[in-house]
Batch of 2 targets.
Target 1
Amino acid sequence: MIVLKFGGTSLGSTERIKSVGQLIRAGGRKIVVLSAISGTTNLLEKYAHLLYKNENTDARELLESLKSQYLKTVGELFSTEEHKKKGQELISHHFDYLESFNRDLFTLYEEKAVLAQGELISTALMNFYLEESGCISVLLPALSFMRIDKDHEPDLFYIRENIKREIGKSPECNIFITQGFICRDAFGEVDNLKRGGSDYSASLIGQALDAQEIQIWTDIDGFHNNDPRFVSSTKRIDKLSFDEAAELAYFGAKILHPTSVKPAQMSNIPVRLKNTLDPESPGTIITASTDTYGRIKAVAAKDGITSIRIKSGRMLLAYGFLRKVFEIFERHQTAIDMITTSEVSVSVTIDDDKHIDEIENDLRKYGTVELMPDQSIVCVVGDLIAESSGMARKVIDALHDIPIRMISYGSSSNNISLLINTDNKEKALNELSNHLFQ
Ligand code: ASP
Ligand code: MG
């Protein structure tokens, strides 16, 4: 069994839905995980925000315009009257449900139910489309197997038991279509795996079924050695290790959601990144082994970083100081990305500044606090530690006229992270490209 996941842009037009249908029909037994059609989840989120604010007229207009887009898609996608009618009924059913929330009170639980409609629609449409083109597929309802526990972590035992049961109901079928992103929470309510979570769904399904391979289909031919949005001469990477892919995904490469690496890594299932616009391209394969040895593989950058420096004479020769600092971040449920220390100060970076005021307040008990917003982490991935390689020096040389605020090096053998002003990011990525890859 292999798992194939197609993202929203791969379903972004009728033509693209049809070509994904062709890709699904080829080959052996598979589970297909679909996102919502591109733009839908954003619009549903916007709809929910209008409902929170009781802006019922705007909400109705938004929904009507989205509905007519879907009806247009249905008209173009299906060729028989029977399937056009099926498609229209499907759209009406989901949009009636969405409309039923457009009244006085709107809750977080209801928002989750609203967001889920995007994936429920895209998968049902694909299933009808395959049916019309004479291909037998079965719709697997993700809400009957995908579940998170009370800590919001996937409940693998539950997922495994239930997806196996669902698949077992159709032993003769080769193609199963299911929703990415959506799940139930520990109380059985509709929930989701957070924005961009369809990749995570695919990886969890792969793990639950001990799949042979997890394929993530997007519209780029795999991981590139630099960010194609800022650097013109990027190249596709053939092979990455799970650790390298996790670093790149976390630090900015948009092609794969960072959470999706772990389940595949834990069960040692290869992840292949493929391009729907160029299905013959081999893409990038992510496995346990690395082929980097003394070589830098890729560079990525993540924006929206704030650095926080805490300076305190009490840190000198003291123990327990860092624990107290870290506890503050834990209390405010804020993850730290980078850390550097000197004898009397510690600097950390965060990418979620929701609780920054409370954090700053609490940190002031321990010393002076300096905040620096608008930073970017540039992450260089490859074999950086090999003694003979001198790779770290090359990285620093490449950035010789860009002020570096923090450097994190040595905690893993495949990553060096540098903190710079976001204004300097494009220059940094290009300099690294010139020095490391040309
Ligand atoms: N549709 C969801 C989102 O836009 C999940 C995904 O596409 O991965 O965030
Ligand atoms: Mg995505």
Note: DSSP finds 13 helices and 16 strands in the chain.
Target 2
Amino acid sequence: MRTCPTIASLGRALSAGAGRKVGFVPTMGFLHEGHLSLVRRCRSENDVTVVSIYVNPSQFGPAEDLGRYPRDLRRDSALLRREGVDVLFTPGDGEMYPGPYRTWVDVRGLDDKLCGRSRPGHFRGVATIVLKLFNLVRPQRAYFGQKDAQQAIILRQMARDLHLGVQLRVLPIVRAADGLALSSRNVCLSTADRRAALALPRSLQRAAAMIRAGATASSDVRAAMVGEIAREPLLEVDYIAIVRLRDLEETDVIAAGDTLIAVALRAGKTRLIDNLLLGELSC
Ligand code: PAF
């Protein structure tokens, strides 16, 4: 594995693989099995696997956890080496945002809903950094987790709108044995918060069971989820949304193939998201 801390060294590493299919897994590090599932799929579908680790400051709001975001580059490198990754790109802020920096990507109409409402500017930061990374890595395929479903929907739109010619693969959520979706932020949870946080996957399991049993009214499913989460006083709900996949608009009727049930909440200081996807996000 070649580790490239600069754009110039990344360029040199990629020129060695010219003509081969490049797959790309962008991450913010502190890797878990969810990331590794993306890396494994990437390796199985491409000739060259590139992973980036960059905690992108522009996707964190001023009151958010940029300073507390967990990091362990040494451990991440060892994991990626073991997975057979070819190139690891680990740029610093000076490489990614050389001053003065003025160019931003807005995916309007999708970036102000759900998480965008409580994290203004977040998806502008995500879309901008992912476009910059795509321009540097030039992948044929890029791999993202379904846990960040809104992110995947926004990036899919960006890829279409800007003719990026990259295929986006969105892979299923990987969960801990107790059902909590894996997230780099889970290490920030106290024992009590983590126990309370399990109401989040429980609420989605409840929704899935209702839908399997034939429920189609969003209001019924939402009410059951609210009830499940309300039992945990340590949780503070940001949103419980039932939306159409194509435009993230709220829907009264749950339609197989075009529905996302998404939850965001706070357990202590830690913001957690999770979802149930009825449809396909890859393109
Ligand atoms: O999903 C993430 O880890 C980040 O949002 C991403 C896509 C690496 C951009 O910083």
Note: The longest strand covers residues 235-244.
